[in-house]
Amino acid sequence: MDTLILVIIGLVAGPVIGGLVAGLDRRVTAWFQSRQGPPIMQAFYDVAKLLGKEKMVVNQWQILCAWVYLIAAAVSVALFFAQGDLLVIFFVQAVGAVFLVMGAMSAKSPYSQVGAQRELMQILAYEPVLILVFVGIYLVTGSFSISSVWELEQPLLAKMPLLYLALGYALTIKLRKSPFDFSTSHHGHQELVKGVLTEYSGPYLALVEIAHWYETVLVLGLCALFWSTNVFWMAALLIGTYALEILVDNTMARMTWRWMLKRVWLLGMGMSVVNLIWLYAG
Amino acid sequence: MFGSFIKKSRAKSPWIMHFDCGSCNGCDIEVLACLTPLYDVERFGIINVGNPKHADVLLVTGTVNHRNKKVLKNIYDQMPEPKAVIAIGACGNTGGVFRDAYNVVGGVDKVIPVDVYVPGCPAKPEAIIDGVVVGLGKFAQKVEEAE
User: Which positions, given as ranges, span the membrane (chain A) (predicted)?
Assistant: First the structure.
């Protein structure tokens, strides 16, 4: 029964928190650029407006892909809140990510195609890092279940600092922020228009947006696991991480996928492996 | 309740798309000036998108000619309803000083229905923001009538 309540909390809280984070993000970005910026509720207005627009699709595949992406993201957040298994969460969110790419691939538009290829590269870069983080959690707690993390006496961060840094890469890629925003450029008038999102419009774009909120919450949730012993420090860690994310987003230019693969595989996975060896041997 | 929130949101999140039908760039830089920190239209939820499939409001600058009228029509058709069109500057409104040229069709309204005309050569950023606000009122009205 408790699990069911947790699942419902996850399903409801996911988009609410994700939307607020997106609104705050735009506010802080505007502050960096000495502007006022939109209201914090702006992300909700955008999605509500998109839901009320005409349904225009290039083909029927896109409808299915948008829904599967949303459902996979929602289920992974629900599983996270229900203290589920990290590996199951990982596979469910990977299914969602792949369906987003398939939706983009189903349209012939070159922007959508190139965006899809780049999104695949991004998936290729962050998925191994996520898996290594989960392996690290397994080495510390002896289980892939989230509930075992809450039973720890000492925060995970003390044992997995390098893995947290590597997770930072995955967070930046997953949030599609600079320097890794090349599959869906921030601003729609750049070289790629909107990449994978180019061919989604109206209500289906809204579904993709809500799914993105869920994913934001999921990755921030993974970050939260690193300081599970103290609520105050957990909040501080999350706020600090996201603030750094916004700073990096605003100070970096977009890079190429080759640069990303080199960075994330060499540095990110290098740090992860060093940390894992330390956990295993120490 | 959700329906009224959607209705309210339309006016709060107009995504604009800017199409240049061969303008002299005067009106275009004024449109882009709206996005700078001085005018900061993003505080009204306005985003400049590059994709007609995401846009709510189409801003058109410049005189329409026989070459680009098909492109303009195509872009307009790709925008999902509800949508609004705003013609900017003397050229967009009527064809301006080029209206008698052999290759010129005339104003934007010769090709697609226009909701708001923003005068000026070039149009001032304040006038463009004003035009977008009036345009939002118009498309809210259109949606009410359709229902």
Answer: 6-24, 61-81, 87-107, 128-150, 264-281
User: Residue B144: what pLDDT?
Assistant: 75
How many angstroms from the chain centroid is the CA of residue B117? 9
CATH code assigned to B14-139? 3.40.50.12280
Question: Would you call A53 and B82 a contact, using CB atoms and an 8 Å cutoff?
Answer: yes
ipTM beyond cut 0.85 = yes
**How far away is chain B from the Cα of A17, in angstroms, using its nearest Cα?**
19
Please answer whether residues A83 and A160 qualify as being in contact, where contact means their C-beta atoms are separated by less than 8 angstroms.
Answer: no
pLDDT (0 to 100) of residue B1: 73
Residue at token pair 């892909």: A65
Question: A179 falls in which pLDDT band (50, 70, 90)?
Answer: confident
Taking contacts as CB-CB distances below 8 angstroms, the residues of chain B near A208 are none
CB atoms within 10 A of CB B86: 26
Q: B57: part of which helix (H) or strand (E)? A: strand B57-61
* Contact at CB, A49 and B51, closer than 8 angstroms: no
The 10s digit of each residue's pLDDT in A37-67 is 899 999 999 999 899 888 888 889 999 999 9
Where are the alpha helices (H) located in chain B, listed in sequence order? 2-12, 26-33, 69-78, 89-94, 125-146
Nearest to A45 among B2, B12, B51 (CB): B12
Q: What is the strand order of the sheet B116-118 is part of?
A: B47-48, B15-20, B57-61, B84-88, B116-118
Nearest-angstrom CA–CA distance, A96 and A101:
9
Query: How far is A18 from A220, CA to CA, in rounded Å?
Result: 10
